[in-house]
Amino acid sequence: MLSRTVGHARLVTLTGPPGVGKSRLAAEAARVLAPAFPGGVLRVELQGLGDSRLLLEKVADIAGAKGGSDPLEAAAAALTARGALLVLEGCDQLLDGCRHLVSALIALDPGPTLLATSREALGVAGEHVVALDPLAVPDEDDPPAAVGASPAVELLVGLAYPGVTRPAFTADEVAALGRLCRDLDGLPLALELVAAEVASSGPVGAAERLDAWMHADGPAPEGGSLERGALFEAFAWSLARVEEASRRVLETLSVCPAGADLATLRALGAASGLRRGELARALDDLEGRSLLQSHGEGKSRRFRLLAVLRRHLQETMRSEGRLALLEGAQLAWFAELYGPTEEALLSSAEQEGWLERIEVDLDNLRHALAFGLASGKTNDAARLARGLWRFFELRGRLSEGRLWLTRLLGSDVDPLLRERLLDGMGMLAWRQGDYEAAKKAFEEALALSVGRASKLDAARLRNHLGLAHLFAGDSVVAGELFRASAEASRIVDSPGDEALAVANQALVALEEGRLVEAAQLARSSLGLQLALGDRHGAATSRLHLAIASYYLGDERCSAEQAAEAAATFGELGDHRSVAFALLCLAACAAKTLPALCHELASAAGSLQRRLGVALPVGWDARVAAALAPAGPALPTVGPDSAYSAGAEAVPELVEKARVLLLWTAEEGAVPGGGEPTISLKTLGGFQLAVGGTPVRLAPQVARLVKVVACAGQAVHVEQAIEMLWPEVSPERGRRRLRNVLARLRACAGPVVVREADKLALGPAVLLDSANFEAQVHRAADSLRSGGADAASRQAAREALRLYSGEFLPEDLYEEWASVPRERLARLRLRLLDLWAQAAEAAGEPTEAETCLR
Q1: Pairing relationship of beta strands 765-767 and 678-681 according to DSSP bridges
Q2: How do beta strands 260-261 and 693-695 pair?
Q3: pLDDT score of 638
Q4: Which residues pair with 294 in a beta bridge?
Q5: pTM for this model (two decimals)
Q6: Alpha-carbon Rg for the chain in angstroms
Q7: Containing H/E element for 694?
Q8: Which of 12, 17, 483, 529 could form a disulfide with 534 if both were Cys (CB 3.0 to 4.6 A apart)?
């Protein structure tokens, strides 16, 4: 019924009391309806946001519209383009903000479909309200058959005795089940909470304990939105049944809306009174009682509470005056954990890992920042924000980042922290094209840095201020600032910062027409960044080199560097820079591949509109001139709407562009006509060729092909992930594998195919080592069978010519390559020995001696 209602109404709101099952019903309806929405289901949980502006940011972010100056407008455009179902859970937490958002979205024609859950209706025009009531409970005088058939009792029995079709109960037990359901008002969540007690103590014991609890003397807790009703009693009773250590774990999780890993639970446990050694036992106990949920394995395992239980615990602790202590500990922990990441996110081999870790904890960090601002712990909040602003920059969450920094800069913050926050504010403003605001923030930070900040911080501020001047059109001032920054970075021995300043000097040289110098500067910074492991910095230098190479007429180099830059930016989540790299690739394709040019330019434009990206002053005309040879674009909806929905399709497009552009540069024409032959060389050095033309693979893509080639017939997906990326979690490894497989298929076709849980080389792949091995076996069989004739010896000679060198010599220290390398080397030696014996038997001692040597 609900699915049909959502299918016909633009806005459906599920209302009802806490614990009635609004979220679960919405989730099930969304699951059933998902195939009808091309953009899928987008779920937004509002618990813990505390600010309507953050609601808009979160919806825009989930819709794939990060970074725009107007989050509502960006979210509306992205949702309309995606054709998605937007599920808003817990609208009563931010009622006014939800009304504003929903009203704006419903006014669109066409617009998204909305499913909301709330304790009360939103009161918006066009709203269709579906009120959920608790499950029907039996009356006291109902006969046992009627009691057992009531919906509430059926649910409780199913939860307490899963897998048992028809449990046998006595008359007293049936009556107890009915009493439990009446006491808990038929609320599904309350029934779930007591099901574990029913299973362990039986219906009668559970009913007696609950009755004693509910009728005990003592006032109800005051304050908070959960009144003393069935759900409150179910929570309170369930919590009273757990050990003290388990309760401390629950209280710790209550301040973590995004859940928490074991490290966070250990760090915060002390603040809630949790002793060492109690955590593992408490977690097992709570999972058994259905009081928490977990996902993941090992270090990546996370635990979280249902939103209603989290609110109950917070309200209880607030009424007892204990909540602020735990929230303060949470803020201090995250400030200590993420505060120093500003440096790691700047230029570090761990950059990608930190970005993903912050992404997982983001709702927790929002909670901590909000508490710091509300409680006056602004220095702790500023320490945390100092570590986060680069995350907001690199992941395109520019408006949200500026919002937090604006609020912190409006409070009392230590001058050193204020200087770093102003630096972050300037970078986020620069990313959004607000160059005057950026310059103002950087100049204020520089003024504060005199006598306070380190020389390195001052050098970085000059580099950032130079960017604001350059993009605003003042290359002269920008050049002076970049040179000063590079010199200062050199003096304090910070090669990463020096490389960034040199890369930006390349931009100034480009702006002023000094193209050869621009290319030299970009190559210089690129070499240093590669040595330092600064992936983002290296991608930036590659992009600058690509632009310089394009204007120098070296479109092959331009395409190579722009494609590599786009791939790296995409992996790091910097889709703003991806858009610039796509424009460079489009310029390379304009003359020879107009259709590809338009596809690339369309993708770049979609990303720019979604993120609110602005080109430097004067560059709009340059881009238009570079794309002009492709002619006017044909009106199309496909690619643009696909890229406006997200950046998922970009890696495949980048690899497609890389292959086509390099092919065109080498052959003078686009390959066509039938499926090309795929040949894979592993002996004497690795090389992949399609249709006889070598294909350059990104390092991770090449590594995947090598691992599969080493496995022979096939390799299990999990085994391949372990060999390729032993340092990452299985879930992250699977995401990487999907991305690498897509890139491989885009640039070279079906080199590696996946069937169920196995990876294997595609049927059209010609593997040189497999060919060598087959030829060796045939020649050896001929020689063993007494074939000392010239033909058998010639077969051995031809087989051995295929051994052009050691197997994958560039991977000598990889364990996965050692077994096939040793096997192939032994085959070669065995065949030489057989050949020598045959030559001696045939009266050819010189030939035999040659083999033995």
Answers
A1: parallel
A2: unpaired
A3: 40
A4: 303
A5: 0.61
A6: 32
A7: strand 693-695
A8: 529
Helix (H, G, I), strand (E, B) or coil at 40: coil
What per-residue confidence (pLDDT) applies to 217?
Answer: 45
The model's pLDDT over 526-576, given as tens digits with 9 standing for 90+, comes to 888 887 878 888 999 999 999 999 998 888 889 989 999 998 888 877 788
Burial (Cβ within 10 Å: 0-12, 13-18, ≥19) of residue 212: exposed
Q: Contact at 8 Å (CB) between 488 and 458?
A: yes
DSSP one-letter code for 396: T
Q: Tokens 């990452």 label which residue?
A: 728
Tokens of 401: 């980042």
Q: What is the mean pLDDT of the chain?
A: 82
Answer positive or negative: Cα dihedral of 636, 639, 642, 647.
Answer: negative
How many Cβ atoms from other residues are within 10 Å of residue 826's Cβ?
10
For the chain, give the percent of residues with pLDDT over 70. 87
Hey, what amino acid is at 529? Q
Q: Which residues contact 247 (CB under 8 A, 6 or more apart)?
A: 239
Largest CA distance in the chain: 110
What 450-455 contacts at long range (C-beta under 8 Å, 24+ apart), as own/partner pairs, is 452/415, 452/416, 452/419, 453/416, 453/419, 454/492, 455/488, 455/491, 455/492
Residue among 389, 381, 400, 300 nearest 336 (CA): 381
Q: Region 82-109: what's the mean pLDDT?
A: 82
pLDDT tens, position by position, 213-239: 655 544 433 333 333 455 666 667 667
Q: Is residue 544 packed enough to be buried (19+ CB in 10 Å), middle (13-18) or exposed (0-12)?
A: buried
Phi-psi region of 486 (alpha: psi -120 to 50; beta: other; left: phi over 0): alpha
Contact 319, 220 (CB under 8 A): no
